[in-house]
């Protein structure tokens, strides 16, 4: 769990995103229980309705499910669902704008690959 939430964004969205990040990063595994509503309320010192709103979004998306009387658990296919959604968003938000800018600048596909390889390795592009 994140230690602090951003005051400039809806808290329920940040609760949802925190759980999604924990699933994607393997901190929460399929069929593993997520932190309880009361744990999230206590940890972030927020209203229980706010937590419930974020949790319900995850339930609606099939990312988590409820075991009656036991709590909320990560759906078996949650990592794959999240990777697919984030991959699509990454393509639309990063790759398409990158190519739209690179083409008019005259970069070849090979040059773009080299720049990405360099950035991946943490090297500076001079």
TrEMBL record:
<dbReference type="InterPro" id="IPR000524">
    <property type="entry name" value="Tscrpt_reg_HTH_GntR"/>
</dbReference>
<keyword id="KW-0238">DNA-binding</keyword>
<keyword id="KW-0804">Transcription</keyword>
<dbReference type="InterPro" id="IPR036388">
    <property type="entry name" value="WH-like_DNA-bd_sf"/>
</dbReference>
<dbReference type="InterPro" id="IPR036390">
    <property type="entry name" value="WH_DNA-bd_sf"/>
</dbReference>
<dbReference type="Pfam" id="PF00392">
    <property type="entry name" value="GntR"/>
</dbReference>
<protein>
    <submittedName>
        <fullName>GntR family transcriptional regulator</fullName>
    </submittedName>
</protein>
<feature type="domain" description="HTH gntR-type">
    <location>
        <begin position="9"/>
        <end position="77"/>
    </location>
</feature>
<keyword id="KW-0805">Transcription regulation</keyword>
